[in-house]
Amino acid sequence: MKKKKILIETDNVNEGYKKYKKYKTFIYKNVEFIYNGKNKDIERIVKVLNIKSRRKRLEYIFDESCSDIDRHFKGENICGFECGQCMVQREHKLRDKNGCCRICRLQSDTGCTSKNLTCKLFFCDEVKNKYKVIKLNDLKLLKLLTRRQRIMIRFDLFSTREEVIMDLYLGFITIAAFRELYMLIKTSLFWIFKRIQHNSKMSSVSKLVIFITILMIIMFAIINPILPIVMICIGILEDIFVRLHQKFIAQV
């Protein structure tokens, strides 16, 4: 079946967002959108419209937004890393390494083992004082997401790229919040086993993460004793779905 073609004639970005809302529905699944102008933002909106898989659209928006942040700071060592320590760790003569990422189970000596837009948008006060940082509202492609999805992006710290995209795909803030508790539990266990393995003391930040995790479990247990179990089960199920999807992609 020959695809119908629709020409996008506007060069106004706000008008482009309106057209996206109009044309993103399944009614236009067999339509190819064409743009002959020179506005790069409109070009990307049209590219998203031509991605007919909802999940692949989210992946493109997520990955391109991460790339926008990387391009904004290209060539800049904004955290001032030297020998694995950021400027704050060196200034306060701390033994810790890997900057803010040291408390994350995904951190490594070469950086993050995944890609998380929420983490890329976090900047400590030292960085904010020295650089003009980029904010969520500065990322134009994120305006193609729903309000709920943008709220999720703000709070999905310490998660893998696939976990965040799964949250966005499901689109339920409640499920995303439940998975965050599950993530905090995994992070706490990661630090407990890491400290036992290396026979070292727990840092104050690690203790704080564990304390917050326990406090949240107790709080939800007071509301409803079954609620923490439900939240953990939802987190485990989403974790399984993510792994199955990764396995499926690897086989294709």
Write the layout of secondary structure elements.
Layout: E1 4-7, H1 13-23, E2 31-34, H2 40-49, H3 54-72, H4 87-91, E3 107-108, E4 111-112, H5 117-120, H6 125-130, H7 147-155, H8 161-170, H9 173-198, H10 204-223, H11 227-251
Describe the structure in your own words.
The chain has helices spanning 13-23, 40-49, 54-72, 87-91, 117-120, 125-130, 147-155, 161-170, 173-198, 204-223, 227-251, and strands at 4-7, 31-34, 107-108, 111-112. Helix 3 packs across helix 8 (161-170). The chain is built from eleven helices and four strands. The protein starts with a strand and ends with a helix. Helix 1 links the parallel strand 1 (4-7) and strand 2. The protein has a two-stranded parallel sheet. The chain has a two-stranded antiparallel ribbon with strand order 3-4. It is globular. The model has no long low-confidence stretch (mean pLDDT 85). By secondary structure, the chain is mainly alpha-helical.
Mean pLDDT: 85
Helix content: 55-70%
Q: Give me the Rg, rounded.
A: 21 Å
Described by strand count, sense and barrel closure, the largest sheet is: 2 strands, parallel
| Number of discrete helical segments | 11
Given the C-alpha coordinates, what overall shape results?
globular
Kindly report how far apart the N and C termini lie.
Answer: 25 Å
Task: Identify the strand order in the major beta sheet.
Answer: 1-2
Structural class: mainly alpha
Strand content: under 5%
The parts where pLDDT drops under 50 for at least 5 residues are none
DSSP E strands, number: 4
**Element order: H for helix, E for strand:** EHEHHHEEHHHHHHH
